[in-house]
Design brief:
The chain is an alpha/beta fold. The chain is built from ten helices and 18 strands. Strands 8-17-18-14-13-9-10-12-11 form a nine-stranded mixed β-sheet, with helices on both faces.
Length: 428
């Protein structure tokens, strides 16, 4: 009879693919029911028959991502013993050659910058590899910013606001940045204007520490609370539309969060609370004091506009919402611009009352084009709210992966607008 340790002396040969695309690596969440359910992983699997390890990686990537990869050099070999099995991981760098991945089984997936990999739970066998990839990502960041930051500077100092290093702090201070959101998850495509948790995560990590409370008074399908959960913060979200509130709860449960549908009496017991309710009635919910607020309001009633190509395509898909709701309380249904701005101001006045002293409010917003003119929504909010909060600065979020359209060509100036304003206020 063979001894268990003898069986483990012959480890399974597993080909693992680091599939790269535009500087990011592909990861997917394991389905429930198998080995280590719910953890994140790189595509790969056991070598079959007489195939080479490179052929194994190409096959596994094709099966798991629904597209072709170019398998490049082997990076490293990692031996690892689990209590019940031994594996030998042969890790290859690969280049993605497909379009949008079609992941087997409808599993959750995303493209991730290497420096962010530690935010996800991976199998223990991947620990060394994750450390290496994160270190490489950090070195790449330093190289990309070496014209802006002196090597070895700034030194780390006591940090009362967050847990970033001095270098990470300095990089966040850049007044503009490029962020191209990953493809939406299947269950949130129904929402007509979701904003990405990958973006919110960066702001949450700058303006808070782990365990603090983040509020989004216009939660939508839950991006803010998903980002809060992933970064170890607690979250409060208010959403008018019951359908979107339930999608938010489902997303949080899928992420492994403890989800509440009402507000606990003790702030210490709050984990991720999704409340169905009206942002204009925040005062009536008796929220606890929160440490940070981040939100993106409706961009006026632009989802009601008839001419937008994206809206036209959504109208042709019956399962997709074209606007937030038909609820008269929905601010996206206000057609008078001044009335819309005034309603937003009332929301942020109530937010002021629950935000801690010296806490920050971030509003992600655009100026609005309508009827041949620009309505300066971002600037109007900045001016009006400066009578209550202190407007500290703006960060300009740019997207460089959008298709250009020939608006007004040969006749009049009309820009392709691919930027948003991230307005940062402070309660002082």
């Amino acid at each position: 009879m063979s001894h268990p340790s003898a069986l483990r002396s012959l480890p399974a040969e597993v080909g693992l693919g680091l599939v790269w695309h535009e500087g990011k690596v592909f990861i997917a969440r394991r389905a429930p029911g198998g080995h280590l359910p719910g953890v994140w992983e790189f595509p790969g699997g056991k070598r079959a028959g007489e195939e080479s390890l490179a052929q194994c990686v190409a096959r596994e990537c094709r099966e798991e991502l629904g597209g072709e990869v170019e398998v490049r050099e082997q990076r490293v070999v990692i031996p690892y013993e689990y209590p019940d099995r031994a594996v030998q991981l042969y890790v290859f760098d690969c280049e993605w050659r497909g379009e949008v991945p079609k992941v087997d089984g409808g599993r959750e997936w995303r493209w991730v910058e290497p420096v962010r990999l530690k935010r996800f739970k991976f199998p223990p066998a991947n620990r060394e590899l994750i450390e290496k990839l994160v270190d490489e990502g950090r070195q790449s960041q330093v190289i990309n910013h070496k014209s802006q930051i002196k090597p070895g500077w700034p030194p780390n100092k006591p940090n009362q606001l967050n847990e970033l290093t001095s270098r990470e702090w300095l990089l966040f201070q850049k007044s503009w940045f490029i962020h191209n959101p990953p493809p939406r998850e299947k269950n949130v495509v129904v929402h007509p204007a979701k904003f990405p948790e990958t973006l919110i995560d960066e702001f949450i990590r700058f303006f808070t520490k782990p365990g603090q409370i983040v509020l989004d008074p216009m939660l939508g399908t839950g991006s803010t609370l998903v980002a809060a959960h992933n970064s170890g913060r607690r979250g409060l979200g208010l959403e008018l539309n019951p359908k979107y509130a339930e999608i938010a709860r489902e997303r949080l449960r899928h992420a492994g969060a403890i989800v509440q549908a009402s507000i606990a009496k003790r702030p210490s017991s709050i984990r991720q609370a999704v409340i169905t309710g009206d942002a204009l009635r925040i005062a009536g919910f008796k929220f606890p004091t929160v440490d940070y607020v981040i939100t993106s309001p409706p961009y006026w009633d632009m989802l009601r506009a008839q001419g937008a190509a994206t809206q036209k395509s959504r109208r042709e898909a019956s399962e997709l919402d074209v606007h937030y709701s038909d609820d008269p309380r929905d601010l996206g249904n206000l057609h008078d611009y001044e009335a819309f701005v005034e309603a937003l101001i009332r929301v942020y006045q109530q937010v002021y009352e629950v935000l801690k002293l010296r806490g920050y409010l971030t509003i992600i917003v655009k100026n609005v084009k309508k009827g041949g003119k620009v309505y300066p929504l971002a600037w109007d909010l900045g001016k009006r709210l400066s009578t209550l909060y202190t407007l500290k600065d703006e960060r300009i979020w740019c997207q460089d992966n959008q298709r250009l359209a020939p608006f007004g060509m040969g006749n009049a100036w009309v820009s392709n607008t691919f930027h948003h304003y991230c307005l940062n206020f402070r309660k002082e």
